[in-house]
Amino acid sequence: MTRIPHETSGEPNPLEALTLDRLRRRTSMKWRTYPEDVLPLWVAEMDVPLAEPVVRAVTDALDLGDTGYPAGTAYAEALAAFAEKRWNWDGLAVERTAIVPDVMLGVVEMIELVTGHGDAVVVNPPVYPPFFQFVAHMDRRLVEAPLGADGRIDLGVLEETFRQAVAAGGRAAYLLCSPHNPTGAVHTAEELSAVAALADRYGVRVVADEIHAPLVVGGTDFVPYLSVPGAERGLSLMSASKAWNLAGLKAALAIAGPAAAADLARMPEEVGHGPSHVGIIAHTAALRDGGAWLDALLGGLETNRRLLADLLAEHLPAIRYRPGDATYLAWLDCRALGLGDDPADVFLHRGRVALNSGLPFGSGGAGHVRLNLAASSEVITEAVRRTAAALR
């Protein structure tokens, strides 16, 4: 499967478009959680203006008063066309999709469909913290299959975890983060095929969170889980929210493999009432008409990855950073600094830089921080300067 690489779009880098003063006028979580003297590079919001096609679509909807209940399959059709163009995947069948309020609530609904109370849900820590929170609230048994030392899925560990998860006779699901947050690893076709084979062998149902799928950089190929052999019983959640900064415009899609269509059909009808109609309009416009803007963003993120690597090598060489191939999140190993399990707390209070603590990411998170790269080069440079100064 060959991904169409992003090209020079002619659009300006959206990460360099907004001043810090303008960003501080925002009222979202990123900009209201900490005092104004703190540089926020934590939660997954991007410091960008919205893509013009998205702004136009939402403005037109508001002019029309088109703010009722969602209907139709335009979102799924736009995602299917995007997947075919970007990932050379023509297997996203619109009739095997359903709208859900957002990816994590969609994950909850999919796990509810394929497991019962007390059943196991396998995750690969360090991983997105809401995986732990939502699974715990569902009365499921969370089981960890930690990533390998290279930050990738350890198939041997995964197989043993699957075996143990079903040993008592219950059902089990595997919550796959693809691409992986926080390491930025993009799972290969070979890795995903191996996952599908293991899931089939042990009767584990795979639910793939693929929210970061459009944010793959360089020459790396994103491979949708449902595209690999053996994944027919899988379920996937996708959304335009991360790639186009639309988290506040709620909408996502649940996608079923051919052998999981009956499961998706059992999802309660009322779940489809949760997404925002205006959100669906925005996400549809992003996928259909926001490609040039996305390409400009991907170019900016590649620049920021190199910038961060260079800045850390110069000012904080003890921090280990392996740039990922996806997401706009950087996973930094700070253990050599001797700051204990939660260096983010030190960076916040001494350097006035807000990063995500690694502790909520589960096993392997202690001594790490997650940094949001979706900011201007000026902000990233200042954040590293402050962090280095905090250690003197």
Give me some keywords for this one.
single chain; 392 residues; alpha/beta; 7-stranded mixed beta sheet; 4-stranded antiparallel beta sheet; 14 helices; disordered N terminus
Question: How would you summarize this macromolecular structure in one to three sentences?
Answer:
This protein is α/β, with parallel strands linked by helices and 392 residues long. Helices cover 38% and strands 13% of the residues.
Explain what you see.
Residues about 1-5 have low confidence and may be disordered. The chain contains 14 helices and 13 strands. A seven-stranded mixed β-sheet has the order 2-8-7-6-5-3-4, with helices on both faces. A four-stranded antiparallel β-sheet has the order 9-10-13-12, covered by helices on one side. A two-stranded parallel sheet has the order 1-11. The longest helix is centred in the last third of the chain and has 25 residues, at about 290-315. It is α/β, with parallel strands linked by helices. Strand 9 and strand 10 form a beta hairpin. The protein has helices at about 20-25, 30, 50-65, 75-85, 105-115, 130-135, 155-165, 190-200, 240-245, 260-265, 275-290, 290-315, 345-350, 375-390; strands at about 40, 95-100, 120-125, 140-145, 170-175, 205-210, 235-240, 250-255, 320, 330-335, 355, 355, 370.
